[in-house]
From TrEMBL:
Function: May have a photoreceptor function.
Keywords carried by this UniProt record: Chromophore, FAD, Flavoprotein, Lyase
UniProt-listed Pfam families: DNA_photolyase, FAD_binding_7
Cross-referenced InterPro entries: Cry_DASH (IPR014133), Crypto/Photolyase_FAD-like_sf (IPR036134), Crypto/Photolyase_N_sf (IPR036155), Cryptochr/Photolyase_FAD-bd (IPR005101), Cryptochrome/DNA_photolyase_1 (IPR002081), DNA_photolyase_N (IPR006050), Rossmann-like_a/b/a_fold (IPR014729)
Cofactors that this protein relies on: (6R)-5,10-methylene-5,6,7,8-tetrahydrofolate; FAD
Family: Belongs to the DNA photolyase class-1 family.
Residues holding FAD: 231, 244-248, 284-291, 382-384
Chain ranges of the Photolyase/cryptochrome alpha/beta domain: 2-136
Name of this chain's protein: Cryptochrome DASH
Keyword Nucleotide-binding listed: no
Length: 429
């Protein structure tokens, strides 16, 4: 029997999953697999756990939901733990698999893992087939080659909107033929060197992982509350569940695809009318695309001190006392403190907050921006390698910002976006 493996990574969904769809079409039997990669739970060179408590809890919930949904279709999820290049070939050998289907990666470490897995599979005469499943626009449909993608977002956006189209989604499979797959056994947070941190009750939203929850959130934000129609006016908010879509955590793990969101926006526009707000959510999805394509183009440069610019503005220093004050929300700025306490206690921070705390880190504290980016990587539920490092490089003046040195006046920002002090009072009590 022709058996294939679907190696899930950050595409933890059944709807609009090309790798899964191709595997079902090209094989008689499919084995869904997820590998807890040891390297994701190590301490980075900057001294932070790469995957922190909040994000890992969200991942475990997402995998449980994926297994539940696979079981409804006659399949299930096999969990591996270790190095993917060691663990995946074991399953390949056991089931005599000739092809592994997976999501195509773009960032440096993820590409390296993909490459070593491919080499290990080749020795077993097994192919690795990868598909681009994370972006709104498919790379092949862009109006420029990879090396010619503009480094300025506005130029990229205008040409892409004019000359490219968003592809249709892939339907969810109806049934999946699999060999008998044992009951799901997930590692505990303790097994992964972490511990359970409940999300603080003051959190803007109580995130729960999985495709089921992602679709619930979409339905709530679009069709139940019609919050989408006011998105552009409210997106800079800081308190409450519906000032922004909050899709980022589910997008980061691929519990929902950007194309699904796009086509649901189009459906919403037909029913309730299009306006600046409905467009603006697509605009934000385009920013997400832009950073992914930038990582394809520039590869390791986004992890270098000098970024893609080659010159540096802030210092390369580390001041442990100032870093601790920033992390724990004990700086001289109440606005920064409120945001950093929110992040520490919930794994989330508003877009407005992120820009301010990053600007403060780079300009006021004048430390190596990568330390801030690495702390975010550990702490954020919605950590996405391209968006996180791309945005930090942008704020540090070494990324895609055409204005060389963007500086936020923190007190002005606090007065503009937290006029009544509701946000500061919530987190500083």
């Amino acid at each position: 029997m022709k058996t294939a493996i679907v190696w899930f990574t950050t595409d933890l969904r059944l709807y609009d999953n090309e790798a899964l769809k191709r595997a079902i079409t090209q094989s008689e039997s499919v084995i869904p697999v997820y590998c807890f990669d040891d390297s994701h739970f190590e301490t980075s060179q900057y001294g932070f756990k790469k995957s922190g408590n909040f994000r890992t809890q969200f991942l475990l919930e997402s995998l449980q939901d994926l297994d539940d949904n696979l079981r409804k279709m006659g399949s299930g999820l096999i969990i591996l733990k270790g190095k993917p290049e060691v663990e995946i070939p074991k399953i390949v050998a056991e089931y005599r698999v000739r092809k592994v289907f997976a999501k195509r990666e773009v960032a440096f470490e993820e590409k390296q893992t993909e490459s070593v897995v491919q080499t290990a599979l080749f020795k077993l005469r097994c192919e690795l087939d990868t598909y681009s499943t994370s972006t709104l626009y498919h790379a092949e449909d862009l109006p420029f080659s990879l090396k010619d993608i503009p480094d300025v977002f506005t130029t990229f956006r205008k040409k892409t909107e004019l000359d490219a189209a968003v592809r249709n989604v892939f339907d969810q499979p109806i049934t999946i033929v699999s060999p008998e797959i044992p009951e799901l056994i997930l590692p505990t947070l303790k097994d992964l060197g972490l511990h359970f941190s409940p999300i603080d009750s003051r959190a803007a939203i109580q995130f729960k992982g999985g495709e089921t929850e992602a679709m619930k959130r979409l339905n709530h934000y679009f069709f139940e509350t019609k919050s989408l129609s006011a998105y552009k006016e409210t997106r800079n908010g800081m308190v409450g569940e519906d000032y922004s879509s909050k899709f980022s955590a589910w997008l980061a793990l691929g519990c929902i695809s950007p194309r699904t969101i796009y086509h649901e926006i189009k459906k919403y526009e037909k029913e309730y009318g299009a306006n600046e707000s409905t467009y603006w959510l697509i605009f934000e999805l385009l920013w997400r695309d832009f950073f992914r394509f930038m990582f394809k183009k520039h590869q390791t440069k986004f992890f270098l001190y000098s970024g893609i610019k080659g010159d540096k503005v802030n210092s390369k220093s580390l001041n442990k006392k100032l870093l601790s004050q920033w992390i724990n929300g004990t700086t001289p700025s109440e606005f920064i403190n409120a945001n950093m306490i929110e992040l520490k206690k919930t794994g989330f921070m508003s877009n407005r907050g992120r820009q301010n705390v990053a600007s403060y880190f780079c300009n006021e504290l004048n430390m190596d921006w990568r330390i801030g980016a690495a702390y975010f990587e550990s702490q954020l539920i919605d950590y996405d390698v391209c968006s996180n490092w791309g945005n930090w490089a942008y704020l540090a003046g070494v990324g895609n910002d055409p204005r060389k040195h963007r500086y936020f006046n923190i007190e002005k920002q606090a007065n503009d976006y937290d006029k009544d002090r509701a946000f500061r009072d919530l987190w500083l009590q």
